[in-house]
Fold these 2 entries.
Entry 1:
Amino acid sequence: MKFNDVLENLTNYEAGKPIELVVREFGVKEKDVLKLASNENPMGTSKKVQKALKKAAAHAHLYPDDSMFELKDALSSKYKIKPENIIIGSGSDQVIEFALHAKTNSKNAILVAGTTFAMYEIYAKHTGAKIYKTQSKQHDLDEFSKIYKEKKDEISVIFLCIPNNPLGECLDRKDVYKFIQSIDKDVLVIIDGAYNEFATFKDSKKEIKPKDLLDKFSNVLYLGTFSKIYGLGGMRIGYGIASEQIIKALSKLRAPFNVTTPSLVAALEVLKDEKFVEDTLKNNLKEMKKYEKFAKKNGLEFIPSYTNFITFLFKKQDSSEICDKLLRQGIILRNLKGYGMNAIRITIGLPKDNQRVLKALKELL
Ligand SMILES: *Cc1c(COP(=O)(O)O)cnc(C)c1O
């Protein structure tokens, strides 16, 4: 059967290996599997969320509130913006999909960092758009500007991942604002803030404020997710914040009931659980230092991280081999070979998790 041409150069996103797979393939007991591969929250699910979900279970027969009034209201208060500036997606992934379907086609292109979140490229390819990447793996705004000027007729969307997944580096807010100022108003600049809460906690110069973006620019879309710091990866819920004009355009692509009732309930509840968020931030910063210390002591290169993961770069060892050996012990990490790097990305876990990872790593070095 013949399919659309765009499918020919499409590959699936390589997701972190699920716990069940390690249990099945390597006979590791489920309780002994440690997954630090997808930047999920090691604190688990907020107790408040768990309670609210039990209550919501009795209403599973009803369609969700498609206006998503309560969650939009809560996000409006949090960011001091209007509900009309918000779109909710089944993960912020879905908002990326809406944005690319709204702005790209086979005649134009997107511009991204050399090594960044793979879904930008995948969704752009759905539309037949071209992908321009900077030579540098990490975000380099001078290089972004150079390519933008050269390919101005083609580029319709620019992605800045602040901080960047899977490398962990983070641009300063003032440089980002200056860069956006230099971009044509018809180009959509997408700021992916999936880990911005972690960056802000470490260094306030990294904080991207959606309200600032709205006040200053008509062509920026900010993305937030409940999958990382809020510990709701399994609920698939995220959001986009932009001018009313952009939100209206993206909303045309949103199918009704794209977010389930439990997801809406969970997101609303976790926004109220400030302690859960605070504990997550504190654990992350404290435990990150242990990985940095380990790397320095063992001559490993690492990228200073503003996220909830750290990327170790290997010279002597092979990252695939290390990941494979750890997997057999039940430790799931993210090999970055697929990104053309001899590197491993490790999600920061609880103290006992990190101790186990570092001990196992030490034995392999
Ligand atoms: C995790 C992640 C997302 C979105 O995740 P969802 O689960 O779809 O909300 C977006 N961007 C980056 C960079 C991420 O790491």
Note: The domain at 48-270 is CATH 3.40.640.10 (Aspartate Aminotransferase; domain 2).
Entry 2:
Amino acid sequence: ATRSLNCTQMDKDTVLTHILKPQGLSTLLGGEPPVSVINSNRYISQLAGGDRVADINEDDTPSSLDHAILTALSAETKTVILMGPEGSGKTTALEKLVLDWAKGDHLQNLSFVFYFRLREMNSLEAVLSLETLMQNHHSRIPPECIPPILQKPEEVLFVFDDLDRYKYNLNPSVHTLCSDPSQAVSVSCLIASLFHGSLLKGSAFVVATRPTKRLTFLKSTQIEMLGFLKPQRAAYFNRFFTDPAAANKALVHMERTLGFYDFCTSPRFCWTVCSIYKTLMDARKKLPETLSQVCIDILTNLIQALSLNKACSRQLVLALGRMAPRCFLSHHSSCTREELNSFGFQQFLTSVGVFLRVDGNLDSDTCVFSFTSQQMQEFILAMSFFLDKSTGGSVEKMFEEQKGRAKFLDLFLSGLSEPIQRRPLETLLGEFDPDQIMNFKSWFKSSSEEALKAYEKDRHIRFYHMLHQAQNENLVKEIITPSARTGLSYGGLSLQDSVSLNYVMTCLTELIMLNLYRTENFTEEQAEVLVPAMSLSHQIILSDSSLSVGAVLHLASAISRGVTKELDLGHAHLGEEKFKILCAGLRDSKLQNIKYYLLKAPFKHSRYPTTAFSKTERNSINTFTSCEDLGLVLTSGSSQLRVCDISFNKVGDQGLMKLCKSLSNPQCKLQKLKLFDNEVTGACCSHLMESLRSEHCVLSELDLSVNELGQKGGLLLCQALSQLGCPLKKLGLKRCELTRPVFEELGSVLSSGNSKLESLLVGMHPVGDQGVKPLLAAVAHPNCLLEELDVEMTNLTDACVVDLCAAIRASKTLKNLELSNNSLTDVSVPALIQVMEDSPNMQELRLKYNDFSEDVLDMIEECGKVNF
Ligand SMILES: *[C@@H]1O[C@H](CO)[C@@H](O)[C@H](O)[C@H]1NC(C)=O
Ligand SMILES: *[C@@H]1O[C@H](CO)[C@@H](O)[C@H](O)[C@H]1NC(C)=O
Ligand SMILES: *[C@@H]1O[C@H](CO)[C@@H](O)[C@H](O)[C@H]1NC(C)=O
Ligand SMILES: *[C@@H]1O[C@H](CO)[C@@H](O)[C@H](O)[C@H]1NC(C)=O
């Protein structure tokens, strides 16, 4: 036991010295060396994802990576695969795990840990036994420690880093697995044999790899590295910058200018950003506003550090530029030494480590080189396009070649085409080629013009991204001409898209419309980004959208600060709480028109299942509370709200009574109110009557169609209308369960001389010829001001036509008459056509769905004023 304990301590000592030995040089692009991260207390445990991790945590909270690894190691399958993209901190996490074991912090029932970087084992072509491999690896372990290891495999942990960089296949089917620890086989066979348990069965494994499907044969717990999300970034910045004020300044700046890019979750990228910010802040220079500017600052910094002359610096960048497209093509995105020479790197070999990742010994032929980040690779490509005519060719050709691979190339070209932005690089490398700049600019102008004329959001957004990188307000104004279709829907944009859209929109002095129709998930972050553009827009369309609480807060604040006059939230599913938040923002806004109607069957076009929302969310304005909120807006005094469409909600009598109070308030400027289908009954009509009679009421249009007002309600409304001074000019009462007595009363109101009504919609009441008769008599009366009358579906027959024609002939005002869905027949057609031809006022007669035969079609068609 003592002996084995000594062996363990020896192993721990070698692990500590072996791993703590700094490896490679620390460069701006390569990330901070793990040892330095750990020793300087900058290690931040990221969150872990993956199916199995969710199983581990019963309460659904994301687990910390360290915890997830430890938990997975104590499970039955003691094989853990750590998956994360390039620069996501895999190596750092592995080294932390192993160092903490060696320091005695955890996993103390393990006696031995073997740590291998598989990328370095690519060159191990020798055949050897497991015993030799172990001894070679931990050279200070005496041979007598090997037997205890072999006897207690459950006390052994193997850690393999860089599995994706291992060039040999580990699938058991391609190896003859070995089971004898003293048998010499190929290294790949050794590793496969360990993985598959023919050697040291029972030992534990932690394997790190970039996302790959190569490991499906391995029974394991997969843990996904989620990288640095916002909280981890904040923690990292705080540890990087010792001064909290500097940390905060840097963090806020990064989140604003870069936080919307996925690659910000990469710890390596965070290190690069912190390093470059620190340099700039120490030199009291401005921090970069865009991704292009970050890359410009990084490259400037790297080149300066090499202290080469202008010509050499340019040659070096050109050599990198030749390598960049080649790396996109090759499978492992890496180049050999021989290839590197062909690009012109000979004299710079000692400096390449600053720009490239070097795997292997620089002097060896097996050494390979690759770019550490795709952004930098594409940036170099864009640079070399401008530096040297002979490398690039035309812009189109370059895009064609990099299609499907490059993500930021067009952005970088745009950023670099601006003289102010590229100046620091030109100072170091010499002038960019003016012809290439011209090529790009003319391509940009013509292709953006074409794209912006099209109705394709994605094509627009691509050019908005480029304009954002160019950071040139005049260029935006030059490109976004009146022919650009900026009113098309930009719904469903990513956060990154929203940033560019906002930039472009805020460069334009006047914004007619911001159309975000069908934004299925308008998040707080996205809304925050768009606040400036929303504030500047006269009209905001968010119909068919769903908004988070945070998004509504930002929308409300944008509108309260801005110039927005119209807001369309049709079929937007706010619910009571969010509606309240919105209303609070509207109280002293310039908003004049709000649409907040809902359809009974929402989501007809939407990908959301209807069940995703509760009933109350679908029918938002259904309580007293929401109407109270709306009332507060209407009576705030500073509100400019004149038009409000809340059709298809559930206002009900209680809600309408609340609104009625507002209508008679002297502060209320509301002129049009649409309450189509809102579960209102006759019970609230006395309140409505009181409001309409109030001297302060300015409501001129009211639509109450599809509510059960009934005879009692209808008669009360007539009382209101009969009062001299009633402001109503348009009244919608279709399908309100009105009766003949109501029609009679309406007729007498219209001819009383008190009514200002110009439009009356009373269709969908089966009152028949006798019922409609009083209305026709009123139309003929000189006091009646009606211009529009809708008696659709009122069971009219040919018997009414004499009165009808007389009314039309007598009226000086009537222009539109709706008679669809009645029972008129061919007999009536000649008279109707004649009266339409004769009438100087009449503009349209609608006769759809009556009982006409084909015989009269020609006659009707000839009269241009009849809609059939
Ligand atoms: C270490 O011990 C714990 C608790 O005794 C156990 O759950 C775990 O499986 C052991 N780990 C290994 C790697 O043997
Ligand atoms: C909406 O966005 C939030 C935050 O990004 C996300 O958590 C949620 O899953 C999204 N919902 C849908 C339906 O896409
Ligand atoms: C009105 O007309 C419809 C369809 O023509 C008919 O079904 C209904 O019975 C009629 N109603 C009355 C009250 O005449
Ligand atoms: C009018 O009649 C047509 C044909 O029968 C029908 O499709 C339509 O729904 C009716 N209109 C109304 C308002 O009911």
Note: The chain is about 45% helix and 10% strand.
